[in-house]
What does this fold into?
Amino acid sequence: MSCGHPHDIDCRKVLDAVFLYLDGECDGTQQNLIRSHLDECSPCLREFGVEHEVKLLVARKCGGDRAPDSLRANLLARLRAARVEADATSDLSAE
It folds into this structure.
C-alpha cells in the first residue's frame, strides 16, 4: 500500500511494523519514524486505527494471555503473505 506521497518510511513498512509499534517492540528511531509517518499519512493512520482496535479487542477477550511465540510468528507470516497477495491482486487489476 502506498498513499502516493513521499515519506521518510514507506507506507508498506509502517503497516508491516504496526503491531511491533503497538507492542512497544520497536527501537526509539523506528518508533519515531512510524509515529511521524502516522501523523502525516491519513491512509496509514486509518489502517493503524483498525489494527489498534483489533489488538485491543483480542487483549480484552483473551484476558491478557500471551500467545506462544511460534503462533505469533506464524500469524505474522500469514498476514504478510495475505498483504503481498492483496497487493499483487491490486497491481493486476490496475493494469
The chain has a mean pLDDT of 79. Residues 66-95 form one domain.
